[in-house]
Amino acid sequence: MEITMKPSIKRMKTVESVFDPSLKKVPKIDLQGVKVWYDDFMAIKGIDMTIKQNSITAFIGPSGCGKSTFLRLINRMNDYVDGFKMEGKIKIDGDNIYKKKVNVEELRKKIGMVFQKPNPFPKSIFDNVAYGLKIQGIKDKQFIKERVVSSLKQVALWDEVKDDLKKSGMALSGGQQQRLCIARTLAVEPSIILMDEPTSSLDPISTAKIEDLIFQLKEKYTIVIVTHNMQQASRISDYTAFFYLGELIEYDKTKTIFTNPEKKQTENYITGRFG
Amino acid sequence: MFKFWGIFCTLIGVVLLVIFIGNIIIDGISRINWDFIIDLPSRKPENSGIYTALMGSIWILLLTTVIAFPVGVAAGIYLEEYSKKNKLSGLLEINISNLAGVPSIIYGLLGLEVFVRIMGLGPSVLAGSLTLSLLILPIVIVATREAIKAVPSSIKDASYALGASKWQTIWHQILPASGGGILTGVILALSRAVGETAPLIVVGALAYVPFAPQGPLDEFSVLPIQIFNWISRPQAGFIENAAAAIIILLGITFIMNGVAVYFRNKWQKKWK
Amino acid sequence: MQKIKELVIERTLLASSLITIAVTIGIVLVLSIETFRFFGEVSIVDFFTDTQWTPLFTEKHFGILPLLSGTLLTSFIAILVALPIGLTISIYLSEYAPRSFRKTIKPLLELLASIPTVVYGFFALIVVTPFLQQIIPSLSGFNSLSAGIVMGIMIIPYISSISEDAMHAVPRSLREASFGMGATKLQTAFKVIVPAGSSGIIVSIILAISRAIGETMIVAIAAGQQPRLTLDPTVPVETITAYIVQVSLGDVQHGSLEYRTIFAAGITLFVFTFLLNTISYRIRKKYQEKYE
């Protein structure tokens, strides 16, 4: 297996310092020389970065800095955007996911995604969670049922909905909907979960519940979360990456970023002086 | 001042509608009974019925549905979900918009030459249905596209993110979510087909057929043609028949419109 | 396996949408081939200059002008009826009417457009003509006046609904700017909203004209079957569409000159509506870009 731990772009600390050297695991996601264009607009201007396994990495930065685009590169969700062009390599466990032969659907089964606004399907709660299994062609009803129950339990939604699994997923409250969407993602057992501002449309109580949940999920998954909320990044993430105008300005342990950032821009953003 | 003129103009349409229907009901209601429905056409107005024309209309309706529904929805899906912005999609779009504006009688000429003559179907139910299918195809396509457009893209995203393929996403998410809208469009298009007269006359549908069609290759008449035929007769009795047949035709059209509106309202609520 | 299935599905869907192209090609080919054969026997100059159209008589003339004048005359009367009423309705509904009134009246108006045209034809012949004969005693039983008026009623919803959508799309801020300068509702409607929504209004009028030109059953029933080069709305005329119906109802041999006349008449009609539709499509595209 190829171990990719090379230094990243010049203005950054070396990647080695980001990782705990005692854990000699293959990094889960390795992005090399990534550039993205939408038609003529260059959205990502060359980023190298390595995202570590079983940790939570937060992407922060002002609107339009490219952090969501960057996140959506990892499960190739930008493929459907008109005018999308990309350069560079994104390796997951050493395999470039932008190689021609890659089966995008298989890839997305391994990488779950939770969106900004809760987006349950206009189907029952049960069918929402079972959908990912059904499209994989799984027909074993008992298996599907068990997986639905365990997924709903993982997101602590089971006790609230166990009596009306046939109710439409859209009838739930915003926070419940978002937990349903997370359960739906967990049901296909991905190894990586991407979250695009998952709490930005939720009230503080629902947000706290989701944050707890994300924290627990870290044991089993690699999580990347885009957030606008500085406190959220500092509360839950292990590593934080600060993006600005399509570039990765700084990437380090969350503690370091929030207490002792190396770059002036990072400090200004974190302290709320711009953004 | 303008306000009253506005109300006047707006109501004039509605008032005319009421006069229209009132007039026709007065003329024709006494003629409507079971015999009128099950009688064959005859030289004597009082013995004439609409059985063959009604059966012809039902045949046309069913065959047109079977042909236009899958083709129109498939084309709509392609244009909305697959086609990229290029020359072909631009051409398809302007072409469909143009087809929607082609007079129905021109479709009749196309059907006459292609289905009746070249394909040798003769003036049959099948030739008529194919002609009407082409006529309503643009309406079905446009309605399908509008309905698919109304499905929030977040649902597509969620499906793709779970590893669903394009077709799985369309089949399991987009079509169920847009079904009500598509259904509305298809029913409205079919209600137009039921009322069409001119293209079927051109294709060779007959004003007088002694038997109801038994199969897709049989000759046929339809309600609007029967009505047209009766209007053109001088005897007052046939005018009464025409009015009675119009009541039935309008009944069918209004019921289809009502069903379509019902589906639309039900479907729109889903997204609110 | 999955990939192949996806590809087959995509190709099938593509084929369905290509059918629409085939239809257009089919229409153009069918009309041109038969028309080409028609002009093998009839001089093209006669077709456009002869003032008589009598292909079904023993003394044959093939001048399209009488059919064209019948078509344009009935359409003109229809637009004369539909335009003022349709526009007034759209301005009233968009700018004046209470929301609840708008909500109940719109489906009723749309119902007008869903009535089969043969029913309108009945109405024109059996109700409107006898009524008009009381006012104009010289009005003949078949005439372009009542056919045109009824056709106008039929196309009111085409004008009113598209125009209303266009006016409704005019941003609120424009209205407020006009009111803020002390303009009345009427001034705002005519000086600000109508010009701002003008492209949509023009599109609606063009589509209505195109619809009137192609309309068949009303004129076939109520306007008569006598091709006549006239502007007199009280006498029988024949439109292009009514002629095609007349021939189709008779027993005309395939391949005969009479058979080909309906294609020559049809292509004339097609060219007219095609031009109108293309113009309206262009305007609509331009106007969409403006608001995007």
Structural features, described:
- The complex is a heterotrimer of chains A (275), B (272) and C (292).
- Chain A is an alpha/beta fold and 275 residues long.
- Chain A has a single domain (27-270), classed as Rossmann fold (3-Layer(aba) Sandwich).
- Helix content of chain A is 33%, strand content 23%.
- Chain A has 10 helices and 10 strands.
- A 6-stranded mixed sheet of chain A has the order 6-7-8-3-9-10, with helices on both faces.
- In chain A, strand 4 and strand 5 form a beta hairpin.
- The termini of chain A are far apart.
- Mean pLDDT of chain A is 85; it is low at 1-26.
- With 272 residues, chain B is mainly alpha-helical.
- In chain B, 76% of the residues lie in helices and 0% in strands.
- Chain B has 11 helices and no strands.
- The model of chain B has no long low-confidence stretch (mean pLDDT 91).
- Chain C is mainly α and 292 residues long.
- Chain C folds into 2 domains: 2-40; 49-287, MetI-like (MetI-like fold).
- Helix content of chain C is 78%, strand content 0%.
- Chain C is globular.
- The longest helix of chain C has 40 residues, at 2-41.
- Chains in contact: A-B, B-C.
Distance between the termini of chain C: 41 Å
Quote the average pLDDT of chain C.
Answer: 91
Rounded mean pLDDT of chain B is 91
Oligomer: heterotrimer
Q: What's the helical proportion of residues of chain B?
A: over 70%
Q: Please tell me how large the radius of gyration of chain B is.
A: 22 Å
Q: What is the CATH domain class of the largest domain in chain C?
A: Mainly Alpha
Provide a count of the helices of chain C.
Answer: 12
SSE sequence of chain C, one letter per element: HHHHHHHHHHHH
The CATH topology assignment of the largest domain in chain C is MetI-like fold
| CATH superfamily annotation of the largest domain in chain C | MetI-like
Give the helix/strand class of chain B.
mainly alpha
Largest sheet data of chain B:
none
State the largest interface: B-C, 85 and 81 residues
Structural category of chain C is mainly alpha
Note the beta-strand portion of chain C.
under 5%
Radius of gyration of chain C: 23 Å
What string gives the helices and strands of chain B in order? HHHHHHHHHHH
Proportion of helical residues of chain C: over 70%
